[in-house]
Write a structure and sequence with these properties.
- The complex is a heterodimer of chains A (114) and B (114).
- By secondary structure, chain A is mainly β.
- In chain A, strands 2, 4, 5, 6, 9, 10 and 11 form a seven-stranded mixed β-sheet that branches. A four-stranded antiparallel β-sheet of chain A has the order 1-3-8-7, with no helix packed on it.
- With 114 residues, chain B is mostly beta strands.
- The chains are: A mainly beta (114), B mainly beta (114).
- At the A-B interface, strand 5 of A face strand 5 and strand 6 of B.
């Protein structure tokens, strides 16, 4: 089944404790992206990757890191989480980052930073 | 910078009522337009998209949207809503001029009552 998976689905952590949210897709997609969803703000892009070893900042990259060493994986790293990073995070992928290609979304990771 | 506006943040309708959700975007060049839906507790799914051709686009589950270039609008419609349409709806836009970054509106929460 074609899908985007994220782990963990739920995470409660404390300020400053490094964490990684994994994202994996099995559709051989070139493009992958991370979003955060906050009430009243919709989805905002954190980072995206047009292909392996190619990443770039989205609208809200501060406090996050990413890497794209393999085509299928695009982990999101929070080196020192803070309470303002409490949010619902979605990973997405598509065939290409250009044009009208549909983005496929993962199930989401709900992160709480205390 | 490109922006997307969704006029209604919360909509409550009775079953069988007609639905129209507004979406306007600010970019003047060639755009690709999308409507995504997020059912409670689930990830985003594509309802429909427009990139060229007939400005009236039909999507899944009886939804349709009309692209009106002169009004920079891409409104979502459904003639008769069902309780199962209760969800959050997001309009999104990308364009070559913005590097194809997908910009989301803040979303419209639709509640359909029996």
């Amino acid at each position: 089944e074609a899908q985007v998976t994220q782990n963990p689905r739920y995470l409660i952590t404390v300020t400053g404790k490094k964490l990684t949210v994994t994202c994996s897709q099995n559709m051989n997609h070139e493009y992958m992206s991370w979003y955060r969803q906050d009430p009243g703000l919709g989805l905002r892009q954190i980072y995206y990757s047009m292909n392996v070893e190619v990443t770039d900042k989205g609208d809200v990259p501060e406090g996050y890191k990413v890497s794209r060493k393999e085509k299928r994986n695009f982990p999101l790293i929070l080196e020192s989480p803070s309470p303002n990073q409490t949010s619902l995070y979605f990973c997405a992928s598509s065939s290409s980052g250009k044009g009208s290609y549909e983005q496929y979304f993962g199930p989401g990771t709900r992160l709480t930073v205390t | 910078a490109q922006s997307v506006s969704q006029h209604n943040h919360h909509v409550i309708l009775s079953e069988a009522a007609s639905l129209e959700l507004g979406c306007n975007y600010s970019y003047g060049g060639t755009v690709n337009l999308f409507w995504y839906v997020q059912y409670p507790g689930q990830h985003l799914q594509l309802l429909l998209k427009y990139f060229s051709g007939d400005p009236l686009v039909k999507g899944i589950k009886g939804f349709e949207a009309e692209f009106i270039k002169s009004k920079f609008s891409f409104n979502l419609r459904k003639p008769s809503v069902q309780w199962s349409d209760t969800a959050e709806y997001f309009c999104a836009v990308n364009s070559a001029g913005s590097g194809y970054a997908l910009n989301f509106g803040k979303g419209t929460s639709l509640l359909v009552t029996p």
